[in-house]
Amino acid sequence: MPRYVSLEEAAVILAEARRILVIGCSGGGKTTLSERIAACRGLEFQSLDRDVRWHPGWVERERSEQRAIVARLAGRDHWVMDGSGTSLLDLRLSRTELVLWVRVPRWRAIFGLYKRVWRYHGTVRPGMAEGCPEPWPDRGFLSYIWNFEKRYAPLFVKQIDQHGPNVPVAVLRSHRQMDALLKGAARRN
């Protein structure tokens, strides 16, 4: 079982942590939260989508290349890293000091996705690799979001148990909680 902490405990840890991992379903606000933390704390923001997974034209990098990039990025001293892939969690969890797990309701994630598409469709959004313009979501991607908690959340729990059992994990179920976490951490700086 992951070492879950309250939002208050997470705020204390966040105020001092040098390496923070933000995970969760697409559309939930991981990238926005990560960027805000990086800006507030003066940490480097690393996006799996932008920095690791994609080449221009939505061409996925080879897994071995992705692992090498994540190993290099995770080896740095100060970062906030977001991404929803479980295949690279072993490398990230071994270095992180705090996991922030964005677990908003699926309707909120779908809404967040459509808000993002409305804003960035046809252009490259922040946190995405150059040459990868925001597409309209297909049925498979919508299904991924709709079924995330049932199909993918257990994989996160398993990876956290296996590769980061002592890493504190804070679950964020709303944007209001994300705001409260950042305010709580700011009060401690």
TrEMBL record:
Query: Cross-referenced SUPFAM superfamilies, in alphabetical order?
Result: P-loop containing nucleoside triphosphate hydrolases
State the organism's lineage: Bacteria, Pseudomonadati, Pseudomonadota, Alphaproteobacteria, Hyphomicrobiales
Coiled coil ranges (UniProt) are none
**The name this protein goes by in its record:** AAA family ATPase
Q: Which PANTHER family match?
A: DNA TOPOLOGY MODULATION PROTEIN FLAR-RELATED PROTEIN, YALI0E33011P
Membrane-spanning residues: none
Q: Which Gene3D superfamilies match?
A: P-loop containing nucleotide triphosphate hydrolases (3.40.50.300)
